[in-house]
Amino acid sequence: MDKLSLQDPVFATYVIAATLMILKAVSMSWLTVVRMMQEKGGFRSPEDLRRTALNPAPDPKQLERNERVDRIRRIHLNDLENIPFFLAAGFLYVLTGPPLLHAQLLLYGYVVSRLLHFAAYLSARTHDTRATLWTVGSLIVVFMTCRTLLAALGH
Amino acid sequence: MDKLSLQDPVFATYVIAATLMILKAVSMSWLTVVRMMQEKGGFRSPEDLRRTALNPAPDPKQLERNERVDRIRRIHLNDLENIPFFLAAGFLYVLTGPPLLHAQLLLYGYVVSRLLHFAAYLSARTHDTRATLWTVGSLIVVFMTCRTLLAALGH
Amino acid sequence: MDKLSLQDPVFATYVIAATLMILKAVSMSWLTVVRMMQEKGGFRSPEDLRRTALNPAPDPKQLERNERVDRIRRIHLNDLENIPFFLAAGFLYVLTGPPLLHAQLLLYGYVVSRLLHFAAYLSARTHDTRATLWTVGSLIVVFMTCRTLLAALGH
Description:
Three copies of one chain form a homotrimer.
Chain A: H1 9-39, H2 67-95, H3 100-122, H4 127-153
Helix pairs in contact in A: 1-2, 1-3, 2-3, 2-4, 3-4
């Protein structure tokens, strides 16, 4: 059977988890834009101080670090450190033919852990809460990657 | 038919767009190197102040922020925020079996939008120009991802 | 024959190289955690100064830049600039059906170059050593990507 068919429930599980995580990561760009517009600051490029339709009253302070914008940039960077590797690890893992229940627990578990991590980071919960949620997702990626590596070495 | 064959024009379209975007992102590393050599600065690591064949006259100022190098680093970071998700979203999208014309418009449209975004960022055009070009690419990724998610949920 | 089967030695080579590189990149997150705990600093978020089980004696200096933590962050960023594109380029390259020996030299060569790059960066070897090792990996990605692009254009 075609492993990359959406009729295969394991692959469909991957596609749902992967697309949700892509939308999550891309949303961070949009959230950065929203916050920069709310704060009228947190910009990074000298040319962003030119008077334009989107910035009618430029001010050199707009290039200073803005914590509300920077928080989203930190969350975004955390996504870049994690989600691309989840996308690759999950894809290779489902190619090893895991049981559907394992795939669902790992892939949807990852999605839930990252959404909770986002909520904890956005609302500035203590480091320990954020770190615990990050750890769950990271261990899922490590587990899927090791299982896949062992499967490849076993052939 | 094999979905991952270059004889499938939809998959070949993806491969052409994906490889062009990989080359684009990797080129930012090389462009950073070129600018660091031109500027003899914009370095980041303390050990880069040691006298070597590539840096015969070290100076502590070489570790200071250099706007010409930093511009490429900002463009590069923007690529990291966008291109890996395009690569994944485009791959899953072509697996859903879209019409060739849709795939060409979306995938090649993305490539063109990112190359124009690069030109606008490199030449320091106003924020509004750069933002418009970024938006086109981001909406293409969001569209492909949502179409793929809906296709996966429909099975 | 199924191109995405672990019984295909070319694809198995890719899976081994890809999973090793995913583990390498994810390890940088864990190494950052280890160093932040060793240094009790190098944090980034204001809320990390709250008293918690993991940070019983908070101090504003913990938010200052810490070179030992920052070194791992620089290595990590370098991974983000390289490994996702290796994962995608390598995958598309093996789909073009290269000879096993070529795939092994390129994919395992990349893994070795990145591990040596990591060792050189971690131990603060001169820029020239680090740059040479980075160059090997980058050229492998460029080569695989160009071969794949030419194969796609040839159809």
